[in-house]
Amino acid sequence: MNGPTDRLCALHDLDDPGSAVFPLPHGSHIEQIMVIRQGNDVFGYLNNCPHTGGPLDWVPGVFLDMEKRFIQCATHDALFRISDGECVHGPCLGQYLQPVSLDCDDGWICYRGG
Ligand code: FES
Q1: 95: number of CA atoms within 13 Å, CB side?
Q2: Measured between alpha carbons, how far is 68 from 13 in angstroms, rounded to an integer?
Q3: Mutate which of 52, 96, 97 to test ligand 1's pocket (most atoms within 8 Å of Cβ)?
């Protein structure tokens, strides 16, 4: 990703609701962005659980719980609200996922920095 607005994937490439993970070059290392789709809305967070700092996904790109109502950490089952990344259940209750700025542009999910 080189520009201020980078396309990650087409909106319709994700299930509704659904999720995916993308690499994000950040200085000398690579971060991972989780992308969550709900209808025409998209939400992005760094793939770092506030509990340990490790990734949330066991299966790459799978972040939602069985009912697809929350983001779920596969390590200790913390649940995070999709809309703002607040942990509502689990060992990091009340802490937040770190947001990244995404939007939808002409059917594409685009990274806007964060
Ligand atoms: S690492 Fe996510 S809940 Fe423990």
Answers
A1: 13
A2: 17
A3: 52
Which residues, in sequence order, are bridge partners of residue 41? 38
Instruction: Please choose from 46, 70, 92, 95 the residue to mutate so as to test ligand 1's pocket, defined by most ligand atoms within 8 A of CB.
Output: 92
Number of domains in the chain: 1
The single-letter DSSP state of residue 73 is -
Identify residue 79 by its one-letter amino acid code. Answer: L
Give the rounded percent of residues in the chain with a pLDDT score beyond 70: 95
Q: Which residue lies with its CA nearest to atom 3 of ligand 1?
A: 76
Q: For ligand 1, is residue 54 a contact (CB within 6 Å)? A: yes
**Which structural domain range is residue 35 located in?**
6-109
Ramachandran region of residue 107, left (φ > 0), alpha (ψ -120 to 50) or beta? left
Per-residue pLDDT tens for 88-114? 999 999 999 999 999 888 899 999 875
CATH, residue 47: 2.102.10.10
